[in-house]
Specification:
single chain, Topoisomerase II, domain 5, Gyrase A, domain 2, Topoisomerase, domain 3, four-stranded antiparallel β-sheet
């Protein structure tokens, strides 16, 4: 074979090429085909169908047009895929058993609940429904972005303006690559009531929203059994809803009973259901049924199941619920595209995204109308000048040799621009009458009033939200209808929290922000000095930074280095295995890219007696009542005002009468009364806790309690217990006393106040975790070195220590002790040196509240 000139062969790794190609394919399916956008609730094919109908003028007041015409237009303009895919999507939009509120008004055979296929698109006709007009209203007023179509000939909308929350109202079903969505439809009135509630009260809880939005409302009716599945779906984005057919037991004249089914669960095929019941009767899995007849007609569904005289109709009905699709489970997965990325959303998040989108629509529409009004007012101002000086204007125009010269002379004489002079020379003589002059002045006055109103709207978010609410209520007024699906309580029903065992677990957070929840049994107790077990899979440069023991039903409060506070229920943090990396905290909390969570605390309830004490890395302390954080928004609230360069590094829950111990990296500590720090407001600055030496920083703050010991752990893995009385009580703001000799033994990694019957969990910078009994650690006076708690490899260090309750299960490990523990405390020389150090108590009370 002859060689081809300029032949270019690129060698590629087949595995990498397949991975890249499949990733590109999967992202295309996820973003551009199978999943709906959170803003208008539509997939691209549905959006293109509606926009094509809008372009073709197929409004509800116009005649129907063949579906073949619409399908061809969609294919040719925007959707270069199979015609069957477009027609199937169009048909679904016109089916009253698929859509809660149909977006297409179909004429002809569009299929049935029995699974009958629709007629071919050359026979059927369609146009937009009345509610579809609300999806496209104001699309010509620059309310949404447009993008080029597949061949750059035309522009298509990225999203429709959608003046109602279509994602919830009509739901969505789609299977992408590696993910799927299954959002149930809802009642229009309920959803809009939920939108209005969230506009009026952005801090509304799920319970508040569920006062408005009771649950899904399927087009085929049915009965939802219990509210726990609904609550789980709304709270987490995932849940299982049990839906039953609506069936009644009726007595015939001959004394026999029959079961009459009038509504089926959503997406259940009636013909297949009847067929499956007949098969079960033949197989004798269901006993007592003598006949099944389908009496359904245009008035509605009616399946009549005759029951044998000696059989119990209730038992037969229960068997039908158990063995057939007369009771089915709707698995809710509220997954949608948000800012180009697929996300699982809670009910509140979907409503928040919709409100945010509608704010943008109103702002863009108002800006568009403002621009139009300003342009028209500008022309009218020119015309007004002309009318007021009409004799001179006529003279200038008559004296000019051409229209261009006339416009130029008018501009020079009256300081007008091209737009105004063009309007003047084109002005008909009829505008010169007194009546027309009055109309012109009135129009100009009206325009100026509108311009002021538009500018006021754009300047005030409250007005924008009020317009969103008003327009949503207008849609509700037009299209609201009664619920079709009822919700019935189930005896002994458990809520989502009741389904989750209330047990202690461990939260772990890495430097790069990966968090996971684990059962405490994951870490078996080892003897001190062991090497530990691997705690997580992580990036090579990532290190574990924070651990916390908490109950699954408790609140987790997160505090960031920027002084922001966030709140979750512990069970909302995904559970992981011992070696899993966990989930990025950014998927749970709306923190900034460079913002870092520095503290997590456990809160049972937000009472008035407890306080949150916060200490920054530069030694500033602040005390705020816990009740001030009872209503933490989803996007967080400010917990403290920080100085430039400072970070919030430690937070503790206190009773109001506690004593505190603050320790530093260079081995100093200060003990003082909590009452030394007066209570401050949530946004206050704080006061000085300890005067830091050069290059020092706070590494821990603990609440002291009687009978406990102070554990000090060095970064090199050594640690000791010391009696609390070793730390004399001082006033806050001093330089503290010597806690640990860091020069020979390494800087302090952390301190903890523990009881002898506690267990300790230590974590190193390379992700290794060890659990040991606290009573295996020697009690020494400060500033003793202590004993070896954990062997850390070269280049690694201990970064975090957490205390937990005692576990009696013990994994045998060789006890290692290098014999370097110091029996005594500080030397006489060190004590004398410490006594000579000034206490330097600061009385700086600049709280800046």
């Amino acid at each position: 074979m002859d060689e081809i000139e300029n032949e270019r062969i690129i060698n590629v790794d087949l595995e990498k090429e397949i991975k890249k190609a499949f990733l590109d394919y999967s992202m295309s399916v996820i973003v551009s085909r199978a999943l709906p956008d959170v803003r208008d609730g539509l997939k691209p094919v549905h959006r293109r169908i509606l926009y094509t109908m809008y372009e073709n003028g197929l409004s509800p007041d116009k005649a129907y047009r063949k579906c073949a015409d619409t399908v061809g237009s969609v294919l040719g303009r925007y959707h270069p895929h199979g015609d069957a895919s477009v027609y199937d999507a169009l048909v679904r939009l016109a089916q009253d058993f698929s859509m809660r509120y149909m977006l297409v008004d179909g004429h002809g055979n569009f299929g049935s609940i029995d699974g009958d296929p629709p007629a071919a698109y050359r026979y059927t006709e369609a146009r937009m429904s009345k509610i579809a007009v609300e999806m496209l209203q104001d699309i010509d007023k620059d309310t949404v972005d447009f993008q080029p179509n597949y061949d750059d000939r035309l522009k298509e909308p990225v999203v429709l303006p959608s003046h109602f929350p279509n994602l919830l109202v009509n739901g969505s079903t789609g299977i992408a690559v590696g993910m799927a969505t299954n959002i149930p439809p809802h009642n229009m009135g309920e959803v809009i009531d939920g939108v209005c509630m969230l506009i009026d009260n952005p801090d509304a809880t799920l319970d508040d929203l569920m006062q408005c939005i009771k649950g899904p409302d399927f087009p085929t009716g049915g009965i939802i059994m219990g509210r726990s599945g609904i609550r789980a779906a709304y709270a987490t984005g995932r849940g299982r809803i049990i839906v039953r057919a609506r069936a009644e037991i009726e007595e015939e004249k001959n004394g026999r009973f029959q079961i009459v089914v009038t509504e089926l669960p959503y997406q259940v095929n009636k013909a297949r259901l009847i067929e499956s019941i007949a098969d079960l009767v033949k197989e004798k899995r269901i006993d007592g049924i003598t006949n099944i007849e389908d009496h359904s007609d245009r008035e509605g569904m009616r399946i009549v199941i005759s029951v044998r005289r000696d059989a119990s109709p209730q038992i037969v009905l229960n068997h039908l619920f158990t063995y057939t699709q007369m009771q089915s489970t709707f698995g809710v997965i509220m997954l949608a595209i948000v800012n180009g990325e697929p996300k699982t959303l809670t009910l509140k998040q979907i409503l928040q995204e919709y409100i945010k989108f509608q704010e943008e629509v109103v702002r863009r529409r108002t800006a568009f109308e403002l621009k139009k009004a300003q342009e028209r007012a500008h022309i009218l101002e020119g015309l007004k000048v002309a009318v007021d000086n009409i004799d001179e204007v006529v003279h200038i125009i008559r004296a000019s040799k051409s229209v261009a010269e006339a416009r130029q002379n008018l501009a020079a004489r009256f300081a007008l621009d091209d737009v105004q002079t063009k309007a003047i020379v084109e002005m008909p003589l009829g505008r010169l009458t007194g009546l027309e002059r009055d109309k012109l002045e009135k129009e100009l006055a009206d325009l100026r009033e509108k311009i002021r109103d538009y500018e006021d709207i754009l300047a005030h978010e409250a007005r924008v939200l009020a317009i969103v609410k008003t327009e949503a209520l207008a849609v509700k007024e037009k299209f609201n209808d009664p619920r079709r699906t009822s919700i019935e309580a189930v005896s002994g029903e458990m809520d989502i929290e009741d389904l989750i065992p209330d047990e202690e677990c461990m939260l772990t957070l890495t430097e790069f922000g990966y968090i996971k929840r684990q059962n405490l049994d994951t870490y078996r107790t080892q003897r001190r000095g062991g090497r530990g077990v691997s705690g997580m899979t992580r990036r090579e440069e990532d290190v574990a930074s924070e651990m916390f023991v908490i109950g699954t039903h408790d609140y987790v409060m997160f505090f960031t280095d920027r002084g922001r506070a966030y709140r979750l229920k512990c069970y909302e943090v995904p559970e992981g295995t011992r070696t899993s990396k966990g989930m990025n905290i950014a998927n749970l909390l709306p923190i900034a890219q460079d913002e870092k969570v520095t503290s997590m605390i456990r809160v049972r309830e937000f009472d008035n007696e407890s306080y949150l004490v916060m200490v920054t890395k530069n030694g500033v302390i602040k005390r705020t009542p816990l009740s001030a954080f009872s209503n933490v928004r989803k996007n967080g609230i400010n917990a403290v005002t920080l100085d430039e360069g400072d970070e919030l590094s430690w937070v503790r829950l206190t009773s109001g009468d506690d004593e505190l111990l603050v320790a530093t990296n260079l081995g100093y500590a200060i003990r003082f009364k909590e009452s030394d720090v007066r209570p401050m407001g949530r946004t206050a600055h704080g006061v000085k806790a300890i005067s830091l030496r050069e290059n020092d920083k706070v590494v821990g703050m603990s609440v002291l309690r009687p009978g406990a010991f102070v554990l000090t752990v060095s970064e090199t893995g050594f640690g000791r217990l010391s009696p609390i009385d070793d730390y004399r009580l001082q006033k806050r703001g001093g330089m503290g006393i010597l806690n640990y000799r860091v020069e020979p033994y390494g800087n302090v990694a952390a301190i903890q106040v523990i009881d002898p019957d506690d267990d300790l969990i230590l974590i190193s910078s390379n992700g290794v975790i060890i659990r040991i009994h606290a009573d295996s650690i020697r009690v020494c006076s400060r500033p003793a070195k202590g004993v070896l708690l954990m062997r850390v490899g070269e280049g690694n260090r201990v970064v975090t220590v957490a205390r937990t309750t005692r576990s009696d299960e013990e994994e045998t490990a060789q006890p290692e002790d290098d014999g370097s523990a110091e029996e005594g405390g500080a030397t006489e020389e060190e004590i004398q040196q410490e006594a000579q150090e000034p206490e330097m108590i600061s009385e700086d009370e600049n709280t800046q509240e």
